[in-house]
Design a protein that fits this description.
Helices cover about 50% and strands about 5% of the residues. By secondary structure, it is mainly alpha-helical. It folds into 2 domains: about 70 residues, Glutaredoxin, CATH 3.40.30.10; about 110 residues, Up-down Bundle (Glutathione S-transferase Yfyf (Class Pi), Chain A, domain 2), CATH 1.20.1050.10. The strands form 2 sheets. A two-stranded antiparallel ribbon has the order 1-4. β2 and β3 form a beta hairpin. α4 runs parallel beside α6. The radius of gyration is 18 Å and the shape is globular.
Length: about 200
């Protein structure tokens, strides 16, 4: 989403995490996605770092927010990348962890969402009509949280604003344009560029 919104086109190499290409592991041995290889050889292999790099090239959100909203954005992104993600992993993938109570971790995530629900501005995105860094940085986490048990999530009455916000995201052209299925990349494939409509 960061690359798409900032009109930065890159060569896309879709990978299967069950069959990671050696060229990916050579530049990022930890073997997670995304991996962004810049023309100067620098490697960025964290989602939020990719967003920050893209905004350094073209800050499409510049002047969208006032100072206290920018501070809130940074604080909330750190919360979701830290505590929320920690609990989300143990809720959604509880079988991967020893002696984990998935409901405790689910409730920890829900508590964060309830607090955030009270602060939602709207009407469409978190701070108004326009998408911002906060939206693209934490809505994917909330989407994953819902995917773990959609029926339970949809039944939560204390996060009506969050559910509305998430639905805006799920129905947006932004998400539809990037959630495209690609064949895994192989050596000697012709280059495939993303976003494809630039």
């Amino acid at each position: 989403m960061g690359l798409c919104l900032t009109d930065i086109q890159c060569e896309l190499r879709e990978v299967s995490l069950k069959n990671k290409p050696s060229s990916m592991l050579d530049i990022s041995p930890k073997g997670t996605v995304p991996v962004l290889l810049l023309d100067n050889g620098k490697v960025i292999d964290e989602s939020l770092d990719v967003i920050d790099w893209a905004l350094e090239q073209n800050n499409v959100f510049d002047a969208n927010l006032v100072d206290h909203q920018e501070i809130f954005t940074d604080k909330t992104i750190k919360l979701f990348d830290g505590d929320f993600k920690f609990n989300l992993d143990r809720y959604k993938y509880s079988t991967r962890y020893h002696d984990v109570d998935e409901k405790i971790h689910r409730e920890s995530c829900l508590k964060i969402l309830k607090e955030l629900d009270k602060l939602f501005v709207g009407p469409a995105w978190f701070f108004g009509d326009d998408v911002n860094k906060l939206d693209i940085s934490i809505l994917p986490f909330i989407r994953q949280f819902r995917l773990a048990n959609g029926e339970w999530f949809d039944g939560q009455e204390d996060i009506k604003n969050i559910k509305y916000w998430l639905n805006t995201f799920l129905e947006s052209d932004l998400l539809k344009n990037i959630m495209t299925t690609y064949e895994p990349w192989k050596e000697l494939d012709d280059p495939l560029y993303f976003p494809i409509d630039l």
